Each structure stands twice: as C-alpha cells, then as structure tokens.
Amino acid sequence: MRQLLIDIFSFEDRPRYERIGFLIFIIIVIIFPWIVKSAYGRAVMIKFLLFALFGLGWNLIGGYGGQVDLGQAKNVGFGAYATGLMMLWWGVPFWITVPVGMIIAAAESFGVAYPMFRLKGHYFAIATLCVALVWKELFVFWDWTGGARGVEIPIRSTPDFIYMQFGSPIHYHYFIFFLFITQLLFMNWFRKSKLGYECQAVRDNEDVAASLGINVYRTKVIAYTITGGLGAVGGSFMTVYYLYIDPDFVMPLDLSILIAMTVMVGGAGSMWGPIIGSALLIPLDMYLGAWLGAKKRLGIDFMIYAVIMMVIAAREPKGIWGIIERVRKKRVG
Amino acid sequence: MELTVQLIIYGTLMGLVFALIALGLSLIFGVMNIVNFAHGEFLMVGMYIAYLLSTFLHFDPIISLPLAALAGYLLGIMSYHFLIHHILRGPMVAQLFGTFGLMLFLRYLAMYIFTPDVRSIRTGILVGKVLTLGWVSLDLSKVISAGVCLISFGLVYWMIYRTKLGRALRATSLDSEAAQYMGIDTKKMNALAWGIGGATVALAGSLLAHFYYITPTVGMLFTLIAFAIVALGGFGSITGAFLAGIIIGLIMVLSGHLVSELKFTFIYIVYFLVVIFRPRGFFGW
Amino acid sequence: MKRKKLFIIFFAMIFLGWVGSSTLFAQVKEVKIGVILPLSGPLAPIGKSLKEGAELAADIVNKKYPELDISIARWEGIPNLGGAKLTLIFADSRGDPGWGAEQAKRLIEDEKVVGLMGAYQSAVTKTASVEAERAGIPFINPDSTSPDLTKRGFKWFWRVTPHETWFTRDLFDFLDGLVAGKAPGVKAIPKSELEPLAAAGENTEWGAASLAEIEKFAKERGWKIAESFKYPHKAADLTSESRRLIASKAPTFLFAPYVADAILFIKTLKEMKASPRLIWGQDAGFIEADFYKTLGADVNGILTRDLFSPELAKVKPVAGKLNEMYKKMTGYDFSGSSARDFVGVQVWAHVLNNAKSTSPEAIRKALNELNLPGKELIMPWKGVKFGSPFPGDTQQNELGSGVINQYQGYPGGKLHIIFPFEASTSKLIYPFPGWK
C-alpha cells in the first residue's frame, strides 16, 4: 500500500529540472485565474487542461504503447453521453456518471481491441478511425441518444457540486485541474508499473518483448482498454462545461486527430509530452482563431497553424520533448 | 429489378471515380509507407483548376483534364520535396501529422484565395448532358469520367508493370535500401510516386468537377473514402484499389438506398470485417 | 543554442499574448455588439453572407441615408445614447459548439460587448446562449430556427426569426391552399395529385428538427407521407437518396439540406429525369446565392420556404433599395438568411435606443417591451414583439412570418413570393416544369 502511494505521488526518479519545471507549472495553473482576468484567457486555460487530460490518456496507447489510435473521440463521446443522458433522464449526480462512462468506454474498447490488434501500423490506425466514425454515425442515427439534435442539460442558476454546474469559470478551472491532476498521477503510477514497462517493451520491439515472456497481444488490449476509460473522463467534463453535446461536437474525427496531435507535438511516450503539446497547440489555435478568424479574408489563422505543424513534423519528429532531451544530452555529454 | 440494375450502374460509375481518387493514395503508400491526409485536398486543387480554366479562360472542362493532371503532378512533386522528404525519417505519427498540416494548409489557402463560396462548372460539352439507354438515364459526364478512370488505371498499371521506370518504382517499394544499392535513385522514385499520385487525383478532381460542387472543404470526405478503399484493397495494391473502389461505390449506393443515414457506417463496417479476416486487405502484401 | 533561444522567445510570446490579450482600447461613444457566425468550416459560404447583411445594417445605423424610409437610416449612431456608433465585433464559430461558447465568453468579458447576436447553427446558438445566460448578457438570435431554442425558458435569450414549427405550418397552409384553389393563377389541385409527400433532411440538429416538424404536421393535417429519411450531410454522392425519392412515386418532394447538398440533390434528380409536381426546400441551402448561381436555369419552378425576396420591392420600396445596396456591396441579392441578420442588427439598434442605456437590465426591459412596426423592417413582417406564439415558447418574436418563394425565369430571373397567397408577386408555376 505504501509502495503504491509512493509510486503514485513520487516523481523522484525524474531529473531535478523536470521536477522544478513541473512544480512551476502547477503553481502557474493554480494561481492562473487570479492573475489573468481575461475570460478568453481562462477559457483557453480550461481548454488546454482538457486537451492535456485527453492527451495524457491517449499517451498510454499512442506514446507508451506505440500504437497510433485515431479514434479517441469515440471514448470522449461515451463519457459525454453517459453523463448527459443519465443526468437528463434520471438526474444522476455527475460523480456517479463519470465511472459509468469510463466503464462503458473501456468495455467497448476491450470489445473492439480484440479483433483490431490483429492489425498493425496503418491498418490499425485506419481501423480505429473507422470504429470511431461508426459510433459517431450510430449516435446520430439513434433516437434514444437524441440523434443529431443532441442532449441539452438544463442550466442551473446556483453553483452545484453534485451536478458540477457553475456560473464562474474559476470553478471550472479547478474542476478540470482536479481531473487533470488525478489522471497525471495515474499516469505517473502507470509509467512505473509492470504494465507500463511491458507497453514500452512492446513499443520498442515486439519480437524482443515476446522473447522476454511478455504477452504482446494481451498487453496491447489492456493498454487500449485503459485508454478508452481515461478518454471518457474529459467527455463527461465537456457535458457539464458546455451543457450541450451532439455527436458532431463530442465525437468528430477532428477531435481524434487533434488529441493525437497534441501528444505528438509535445513528444509521444514522455510523461510531459501531452502537456507541452497542448500548451503549444491549444492557445496557438485559439488565439489565432480569435485574432484572425473573422477577417475579410478567411483562412490565415489555419494556414499559420498548418505551417507550424508541418515545420514541427519535418524538423522535430520526436516533438518538443525531443528538443529538450537533446539539449540536456548535449549539456551532460 | 429495374431499380437494382440502375443502382448497380450508378454504384459502379461512382466506384470507378472513387477508385481513381484512391489510386494515388495507394501508390504513394506502396512506395514509401506513408498515409497522405492531404489527398482530398489534391482533389480539391484539381477541381479548382478545372473551374478556373472553364470560368476565366473558357476552356471546356474536358480540355482542362490534362492540365489538371499536370498541375497535380507538379503539386505532388513539390509536396514531396518541400515536406514529405523531410518527414519520412520520423515515426508514423509525425508523418500523419505532417500530411495533416499540408491538408489544412491547402484547404485554407483555397479558402483564402477563392472564399468559401460554393462553385460549379456550368458550361462544357459534357456538363448536364443526360444519356438515356432504355429506362436507364445517366449523366453523360459520369459515364465519360468512369471511362477516363478506366483508361488512367490502365495507363498507370502499364507504367508500373511494363516499363523500366515502373520496375524501378516497384523495386523501391519492395525494399528501398536494396534498390538504392542497385543504383536506383530512390528519392527520385519517391518524388515520382507523389507526382503520379497527385496527377491521378487531380485528374479525378477535374472529372468530378463536371458534376460535383466545388468548395475548399470538399476534400475531407473523399480522403476518408479513399482511406477505406485503400485499406480494403490493401495498401500499395493497384488492382486492390480498383476493385475496392467499385465495391465501396456499390455499398454506398445500395446501403444509401436502404438506410441513407448509415451509408458510411456500412462502408466502415465492411472494411472492418474484411481486415479482421484478411488483415492486409484483399491484395495487400 | 540559437534554436533553443528562439523557442524560448516563441513560448514567451505566446504566454504574453495569452496574459495580455485582455488589454482593451476603450473608445468613446461606441456600442459594441458581438456577432458569432460560422465563418470557416462547411457553412462558411452562408456565414459570409450573414456577416455582410449585418455589416450593411450597422453601416446604415451609423451613417445618414436620407433616401431610405426607415428610422435607422435617419440616425447617425444611436440617438438616445448620444449618437454612439454601433460597432459589430465578429467572431468565427467554426461551426463548432465549443468554439461558439468560447468566443461568446471572449466577446462578453474581454471585448465587453453590450450584447450578442448569432450564431446561425442551432447547435452553436445553444452553447453560446448558455454563456450569455450565465453572464446575464442579452443574446438576440435572428437566424436559428430550431424550435427548442425558445423552449428553454432562458431569461437572456430572444429570437427574432420565426422557427421551424412556424415554417412547417406555412408549408401545410400552402399545400392545403393549393387543394382549396387559393394559389394565384392555378385552379384547385386535387389532393391526390400532390399526395403522398416524400421528405429528405440532413442528419444535423436542424435537418432532424425540420423532418420531425414535417411528420408532425402531416399527421395533423392528414397528408400521407410515402418516404421521410435523413441522409449524411456533406455527402459524396446522393444518387441512392435521389433514387429513393423517385422510387417512392411521391409527386411532392420536400428537402432540408444546406447549400452543397441542395445543389447535389437537384443535379442528381435532373440526371435521373425525376418528374415531381412540386419541389419545396426548407430555406438554408435553397435560398443561398450559390444555389441559384450554380444551378442556373435548373432552379426554375423550385419552391422554397424563405423570409425575403427581392420582389418585395414592389410592395415594400425600402426593401428594394436596401437590396440594391446589398447587391452593390456583395454582387448578389439579399437572401432570407442574410436579411435576417440585417434585421437582427436593426432590432439591436432600436432596443439600445429605447433602453437609453447599455445596462443589461435596461436592455432586457426594452426587449420585452419592444414593439417594432413592420414598416421599419426589411422583412414582410408585421413587426417585432416578443411573446409566446406557440405553446412553450418564451421571448420569441410573435409578429414574424415566413413566405414561400418560387424561382422563376432563371438565370437572371426572379424569386417570386407565392405564399402568403394574398401577398404573392406572381402566378404559381404548377406543375414543376422539369429540367431540360
């Protein structure tokens, strides 16, 4: 038990500069709403934390597991719909709907993972993409989910910690920060767990992993299942944050790709990659969109965004974390 | 009966066009193992070229076919030299990501230049003509497009399997390093694959412009359809892309007739089922 | 090392921008209204025309246009606010509900707008209006038609345009009118000639709501429906859907697509030599300039639910003049959509003028007391007055109305008003002449 707690809360194995950086980051996030008065700045922060949360989950399969999954949006959708529908139908409190959403998403992931991991590389990536699109279309098709008309959660006028509805963004800020930290600590544990090492061994070389006695197939399926569950948390948050969900909003292809991309840009397979990636991409996207999005000539914001993406892909395929690592190695060696 | 026959004809015609769209994607993948998210945007470029030539220079869209193919070829080569060459050494995610950036760039460049307005070509010897065979009435431009698709497939097939250049290309796709030792300029081969890929898809775009609307965001849907086709047929397989294209066209039309809302769902499910039993698609290697 | 420095500078810049973006340069005598529209993404063509409609209205409020016979043209700014200029601040929703909500936040608190307007897509309006409701800022919605929006009992949300229930009632009034022989220039049509109906709508919030309303009213009014289905929007191909409509042997086709799919539907039906007696489109795609510019002569005879027609100039000279101005600015006519955003800005101007203040409470009061006569508007409406026209509606304009238009004599032709029959500007072309 004690060992478990140490594994969860300890970052001792990381180098000092990482720990200091992490501490500074945590402090900035905590005091952020008290320094920044701009509502958009706060909204950007919340969205950044949301995508960092998504990224942390995706990093498990995409980074540590090395499997390119382009269907994470379906899990976001499961979480969002579990919360939305249960709240709407039966008035179930938010904190009960979250584990339900996670279980549904994990169960579905387990179900499709079984056949899907017969595939490798691009075939796997496209299969995940297809599965996510099938779910999205089914949610549009079904009437019981509200179909294309979506689910609307009635607005509450007073702050409510059972249904997690607040008038002020500060509440939401700490709310998402709490979810984010929980997931981060989970990933901290995972990284050091047996499963974590197995995943990394599978990513580095499947044959070697198998020869070490690791069941490659089983490892992948478990990793994919956990990823599914983790993805649902952010979806539940989206429901109570925006108070409206529809399939085009919570489970589109763009969301899957954006999640994968934030991790990729930050550096897949590293603890901090998803955080760095979303800290770069989300504010960049949102400020470019706000400043250049409604001008006479449209599209400049996306073009700048796209050029930055291409430059990173060409120059730093290991993401920003790759740069940091290199700089450090140079300094040490 | 009448209805079924008609639907099968429509499905086959659309399927041929889809197959031509997917051909380039399959070829590029076969040669260098990279999935191109910007594929639909190349299609969009082909459509805009046909539109520009027809509207401002009053070229018949038929004449613009080779010009669009040429432009697609140049665009493919350029993309290779400026972007793809540099992202090839990265991991698969970085590659996806780089081509996704290219996709956004092309799409919003088009939006910047042409505004988001929906356009279409209104003049041309094929535009809006209807061909009637008994009780089957078909858009003449679709029939001709399907024909052009067949011809292009034949040409590409001939090039790949019957010429020296094609042999070099195939050697590169089988083993890039070995090909390099044999004295094949693999960089040139990669660029060529992008050129041919760009040319075929831009050609498909200018054919599609005959009966489809043109707008900067038109590409994504076709990219997805092309993904499904290529994965179904097997990455890198030309015959696979051809057959899978027709199959997808048929599924789309037939399922669209039954449950229109779910027609893409059927495509994805069929793809999913096929790869589970044949993990490398019909003709993948 | 150089690169590292560059990256540090880069991050610092992003961070500074993030923190410092709240800086405002306050200007005297300016009233800011935030307008959220889909300016990129698939609905960008429509968003663009809506933006132009709103810009024209703001220009008319801010400058004197003596030739126009509406009160905002005589103003220079808002008179009761000391001639303060009306400034519209546009934000792109990208057609994404999340983005819409975030832009609403930015406009409300960072740009300090007095109120909001927009957002065309009902899904985006839903999330954006939640932000307005939370902040206690008035949100005037001129352009979303999902009936749900005004059924939420929001305190800070007002809708100017009639909604889907209304339009669908108009459609069935029109169909019943045809049977009763009220249509101009056409003898009474036996119901059997128009029945059954076949309807296709896209699978979005709006398309699904339209189809649901059509099915509901058909049942109420006793019209048979042969076929009613949703299809995936932004379709690559609509042959099977078109075939399905034809196979239903229904003489009346009803559609609810946005512009790209609307074009594709008509092209495909033409290719298949469909011969319906009546084609009716549910606004949106069917009234955009891109629709008739792209299809040319193929639009002739198509009916569409609408709110505006350039032909209104005959009965409403000011509408004609405004349309000329708009056409000069953009190159195409006002559509029912862009004219609605014009009205949205008009309503904002009048409300601010009546409120004599920019405090939310004063605006709220002015909105609830607003009674804007029809002669002020570009639309053929009786006026703008918020109430509850249908059961469950709150703060919904009850004096609005829709029209049903028919394309006649395109290209270069006119969009004639057919319904309401007493206001029609031309004879109905019936049956649908078919495509050549």
Q: How would you sum up this structure, described in words?
A:
- The complex is a heterotrimer of chains A (333), B (285) and C (436).
- Chain A has 333 residues and is mainly alpha-helical.
- Chain A is built from 15 helices and 2 strands.
- Chain A is globular and about 55 Å long.
- The mean pLDDT of chain A is 90.
- Chain B has 11 helices and 2 strands.
- Chain B has helices at 2-32, 39-56, 64-87, 92-114, 140-162, 164-174, 176-181, 186-208, 219-233, 238-258, 263-277, and strands at 130-133, 136-139.
- A two-stranded antiparallel sheet of chain B has the order 1-2.
- In chain B, a hairpin with a 2-residue loop joins strand 1 and strand 2.
- The N and C termini of chain B lie far apart (38 Å).
- Chain C has helices at 2-20, 44-62, 71-74, 97-110, 122-135, 164-180, 191-194, 205-221, 239-247, 259-271, 289-295, 317-330, 336-355, 360-369; strands spanning 30-37, 85-92, 115-118, 139-141, 157-159, 197-202, 225-231, 252-256, 278-281, 303-306, 372-373, 383-384, 386-387, 396-397, 403-408, 414-419.
- The interface between B and C is large, with 42 and 40 residues.
The gist of it:
The complex is a heterotrimer of chains A (333), B (285) and C (436). Chain B has 285 residues and is mainly alpha-helical. Helix content of chain B is 74%, strand content 3%.
For this entry, give a set of tags.
heterotrimer, B: 285 residues, mainly alpha, 11 helices, C: 436 residues, alpha/beta, seven-stranded mixed sheet, 14 helices, globular
